[in-house]
Amino acid sequence: MAESTKVLVTGGAGFIGSHLVNGLLESGYSVAVVDDLSSGQLRNLNHQATFYHCAINDPKVLQIIQREGPEIIFHLAAQSSVRQSTLDPVADADSNVLGTIRLLSAAAAEGVDKIVFSSTGGAIYGNPDTIPCDEDTPPNPITPYALSKYVSELYLDLYRRTYGLEYTILRYANVYGPGQDPNGEAGVIAIFAGMMLRGRSPNIYGDGRQERDFVYVSDVVEANLAAVYRGDGRTYNIGSGEPVTINQIHSQLQECTEFYQDPVYRPRRAGEVLKIALDSTRAAKDLSWEPKVSLEEGLRHAVDYVRANSVRRSARARFGANP
To answer: Under a CB-based contact definition with an 8 Å cutoff, are residues 75 and 118 in contact?
Structure first.
């Protein structure tokens, strides 16, 4: 029963992680969170979760697992910036590879039943020949970030075979939705919406014809919940299977924001995937999972969130943070 199940969420104060924490609590799980707040925000975190301010590659992770005794660990903590991974691949590997190894070692030592691992379907396949691609498509990482995720997947399999630590790997498409930072560098929908609502034309790197697969954050939460008791030792794509160009995203966001100025086109960034979409047939069969939120509906929700938070920030700036 979920009511008696204790779980740990790494990266639980981040965009996806905080939504997952809410979903787990609503489902009756007892939730602890590890997050170093390097990109997550404490205000995102549900107060019903026990919080530990700690980096994933900190030795204290072992003590936290010993104290909490989780049966399941949802591992989302990561250095997730593709651009930053290219600028500093050592730091990327330290967080994503060594941090994962430290977590797996602690989990195996303390008898954790299973790891549900958040990987990247949007980057791990590189530029596949067939789109949408399924899980049998050979990984072809073209950035340190994508490579670090793939190496972590291999370690998960090694720890399963060596120590009996179970896992399910979820390879996400481009996740979007309420709570994504419109001032960051990841999350094109939140960034575009934030700029358009401020009356500024967003940058598009390249010609805008690069294709992405977008999946709404609540659908990603559902995939994680489905993976708790299913999908052992398997890898699943979590996406819509429908490629959408960045130009199309910009056009749809123009309708949502009523901002109709043209974007600013800038040189394409090195290491950027040109075309990707994920075939999630395996997840539908094994996990009974499929995306429920359409892109049109999801974009409206994402823009409404950015708009509402912009109003709140303006009010705080005008009247002060305290009532």
So the answer is: yes
